[in-house]
Amino acid sequence: MVKPVEWVLSRFSADIGIDLGTANTLVSVRDRGIVLDEPSIVAVRSGTNDVLLNGGAVGVVALDYLGRTPPAFQAVRPMRSGVIADFEITEKMLRYFIRKVQPPRSFVKPQVVIAVPWGITMVEKRAVIGSAERAGARRVFLVDEPTAAAIGSDLDVHQPHGCMVVDIGGGTSEVAVLSLANVVEGECLRVAGDDFNEAITQFIRNKYNLLVGESTAEKLKVAAGSALPLEQEIEVEVRGRDSLTGLPRPVIISSEDVREALTEPVRKIVGSIKSVLERTPPELAADLVQAGIMLCGGGSLLRGLPELIERETELPTRVSPNPLEAVARGTCLFLENLELYAQFLEGGDDLA
């Protein structure tokens, strides 16, 4: 039940939902939808938490600093594996994003719904709430990412029927079976898009003696990554530094190389899906024969991944209509129906 005072305040505030991801942060505003999608990166002076450009080197601006800074500066990711690794920088990043989407003359602080990985500890939840409140939120609610992703993918989660969501983000992969808008069985795997990039980087170093950066590995993953053989294999030229001579040089990398590099992290994600299915109650497992598996998050866009999961689980597998925005869209729907969904949210008062 929403208190009368909160109802009045909510009429004058631009309440927001945040998908606070390891790689990207998406922000939605009630009645407006998703209004911001920027990298979760902040550029600071080395050894301090002073954000460059008068506090403006955040998100898209800070992305250009990644891997290209002199010793006096550094571009950092304050989120690691879906949780806060640096509280002060995360707070500054949130403040920047909240101010960016707020109306210029808004005198009422917003209510904020934040999606967090399923299964994080109470301490980690309090850290997220505290950072958001100090960044300018009036009231903070937490919702687990699988539930937000399911609602953002238009799954009917309110009925006593099973549905399965696999959200492969930047820092974590969330695997969950839901019923009645709650996770019945789930697993938060610390293997996701960043691990894909790291696997590609290591493979190129071992096979070609070439050192490449995170941005190059990400571009290669998008251009030539796959979980199954392609009808027409792809070749991409990448440039890096030779680990033996120390000189820059180009190398042609094939999609077969990238697929080999991704074998291990993909295998772990598929193994996690099977593990959750094995622990799912029989009646809900039976529902999944028809409902299947819904994939979302940036990792779901890896070529051949839905087909591989369907082959390994023998369950119909499909990708969310808008996989990159599913969680953020779910937080937006929570905002627009806060009184209805309040029973599924965790608020600051509950975690005090």
Describe this structure in words.
By secondary structure, the protein is an alpha+beta fold. The chain has 4 domains: 124 residues, ATPase, nucleotide binding domain (Nucleotidyltransferase, domain 5); 36 residues, no CATH class; 90 residues, ATPase, nucleotide binding domain (Nucleotidyltransferase, domain 5), CATH 3.30.420; 68 residues, ATPase, substrate binding domain, subdomain 4 (Actin, Chain A, domain 4), CATH 3.90.640. It has 13 helices and 18 strands. A 6-stranded mixed β-sheet has the order 3-2-1-8-9-18, sandwiched between helices. Helix 6 packs across helix 12, helix 7 crosses helix 8 and helix 9 packs parallel to helix 11. The protein starts with a helix and ends in a 5-residue tail after the last strand.
Any chance you could write out the topology, listing elements then pairs?
Layout: H1 4-11, E1 16-20, E2 24-29, E3 33-39, E4 42-45, H2 52-55, H3 60-63, E5 73-76, E6 79-80, E7 83-84, H4 87-101, E8 111-116, H5 122-134, E9 139-144, H6 145-152, E10 163-168, E11 173-179, E12 182-189, H7 193-208, E13 210-211, H8 214-224, E14 235-242, E15 248-254, H9 255-279, H10 282-291, E16 293-296, H11 305-313, E17 317-319, H12 326-336, H13 338-341, E18 346-347
Parallel strand pairs: 1-8, 8-9, 10-16, 16-17
Antiparallel strand pairs: 1-2, 2-3, 4-5, 6-7, 9-18, 10-11, 11-12, 13-14, 14-15
Helix pairs in contact: 4-5, 6-12, 7-8, 7-9, 9-11
